[in-house]
């Protein structure tokens, strides 16, 4: 991926101005993921040199305060501080509402100022919606009315999951966006796919001969995809209680990993070909039955190592006392096709658990004609650890 980015940078024939606008700049996602990622790209010379980053949110912040909120997550080393200051010089912040035309006119004016500073070269615009779903429609409508390009550059709109609360709301949002933008202007993003080990699942499967012959129901007993967090909602209880762990993690992060593990080899590495194979997997999964699901909600545990998880979920601020929102879920899915018929896929995720870990465990069946006494050897597992400390290893015995 990095090599591809470097090659793309070398192919740039000119250096037009780019504007990266982060809606929800004061939020958790922006501070922990987006700003640090932009910094790492800038540090490694993988951002166009003429890029400006504009944080947009409703909070009354100044840039220095915003900087302090994400600087720790950027993991700046002592010898990188001058470079980091250069990065910060490309960042700015503006306060605005998500539904007021006058605030988007101010954003338009800011982009116009950047264009004027660059000899009126067309500005390429990328708008990243790191906000709660209820404001997706108002932001995208205001962007379409006030902040689009004139046809001499491009505009991109990036929308973070969750993409709707259910099928009805997802369809409603899709219809709304299709009236405002062309499909090539829209990018529906699950940031979890950016994890290196997730990107390497395809390399592991389709770039190695040794796995291919055994990657099927004849050799694999089960697949377990886990996402465990040792902490609670960390101030996101208001959002989390409307979503729950299934919408927050399972139906996006874990399902995306499942499709990569179960898909057939695509015709090419083109996005459309990979997407088509993923869709085939999803269509082969029958609706989950209640008997194949376990739900739970964490309670107070004063002995918990993580202070955020020492109180119960219902003790969190903004959580109703009668909330039944699940903070833990386990579901068993089956992919009904020739390769996977009968193999259970266990998806499990939860907060305030014993550890923070995300991994895929592919468990292989026992060897035919085993020469060892029954129970002496445990089943072999191929483990792909997503976090912490990304790794791939074969576990043969305890």
Automatic annotation (TrEMBL):
Domain of life: Eukaryota
SUPFAM superfamilies xrefs: Glyceraldehyde-3-phosphate dehydrogenase-like, C-terminal domain, NAD(P)-binding Rossmann-fold domains
One record GO biological process: pentose-phosphate shunt, oxidative branch
Annotated pathway: Carbohydrate degradation; pentose phosphate pathway; D-ribulose 5-phosphate from D-glucose 6-phosphate (oxidative stage): step 1/3
Pfam families given in the database record: G6PD_C, G6PD_N
Keywords associated with the record: Carbohydrate metabolism, Glucose metabolism, NADP, Oxidoreductase
GO molecular function annotations of the record: glucose-6-phosphate dehydrogenase activity; NADP binding
Annotated ranges, domain Glucose-6-phosphate dehydrogenase NAD-binding: 21-200
Secretion signal, residue range per the UniProt entry: none
GO CC annotation: cytosol
UniProt keyword NADP, yes or no: yes
Function: Cytosolic glucose-6-phosphate dehydrogenase that catalyzes the first and rate-limiting step of the oxidative branch within the pentose phosphate pathway/shunt, an alternative route to glycolysis for the dissimilation of carbohydrates and a major source of reducing power and metabolic intermediates for fatty acid and nucleic acid biosynthetic processes.
Protein name: Glucose-6-phosphate 1-dehydrogenase
Protein species of origin: Parelaphostrongylus tenuis (Meningeal worm)
């Amino acid at each position: 991926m990095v090599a591809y980015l470097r090659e793309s940078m070398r192919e740039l024939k000119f250096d037009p101005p780019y504007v990266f606008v982060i809606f929800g700049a004061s939020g958790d996602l922006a501070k922990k993921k987006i700003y640090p990622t932009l910094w790492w790209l800038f540090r490694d010379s993988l951002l166009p040199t003429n890029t400006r980053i504009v944080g947009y949110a409703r909070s009354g912040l100044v840039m220095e305060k915003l900087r302090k909120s994400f600087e720790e997550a950027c993991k700046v080393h002592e010898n990188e501080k001058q470079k980091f200051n250069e990065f910060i010089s490309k960042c700015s912040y503006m306060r605005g509402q998500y539904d007021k035309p006058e605030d988007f006119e101010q954003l338009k004016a800011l982009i116009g100022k950047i264009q004027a500073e660059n000899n009126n070269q067309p500005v390429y615009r990328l708008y990243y919606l790191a906000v709660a779903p209820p404001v997706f429609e108002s932001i995208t409508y205001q962007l379409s009315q006030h902040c689009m390009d004139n046809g001499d550059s491009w505009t991109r709109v990036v929308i973070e999951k969750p993409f709707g609360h259910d099928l009805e709301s997802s369809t409603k949002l899709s219809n709304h966006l299709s009236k405002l933008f062309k499909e090539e202007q829209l990018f529906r993003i699950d940031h979890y796919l950016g994890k290196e080990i997730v990107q390497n699942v395809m390399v592991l499967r389709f770039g190695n001969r040794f796995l291919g012959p055994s990657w099927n129901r004849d050799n694999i007993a089960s697949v377990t995809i886990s996402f465990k967090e040792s902490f609670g909602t960390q101030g996101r209880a208001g959002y989390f209680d409307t979503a729950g762990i299934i919408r927050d993690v399972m139906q996006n992060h874990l399902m995306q990993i499942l499709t990569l593990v179960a898909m057939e080899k695509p015709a090419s590495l083109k996005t459309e070909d990979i997407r088509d194979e993923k869709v085939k997997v999803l269509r082969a999964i029958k609706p989950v039955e209640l008997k194949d699901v376990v739900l739970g909600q964490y309670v107070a545990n004063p002995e918990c190592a993580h202070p955020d998880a020492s109180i119960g979920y219902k003790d969190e601020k903004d959580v109703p006392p009668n909330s039944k929102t699940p903070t833990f879920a386990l579901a068993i899915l089956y992919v009904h096709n020739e390769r996977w018929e009968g193999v259970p896929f266990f998806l499990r995720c939860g907060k305030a658990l014993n550890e923070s870990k995300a991994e895929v465990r592919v468990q292989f069946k026992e060897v035919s004609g085993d020469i060892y006494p029954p129970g002496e050897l445990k089943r072999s597992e191929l483990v792909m650890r997503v976090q912490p400390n990304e790794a791939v290893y074969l576990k043969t015995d305890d």
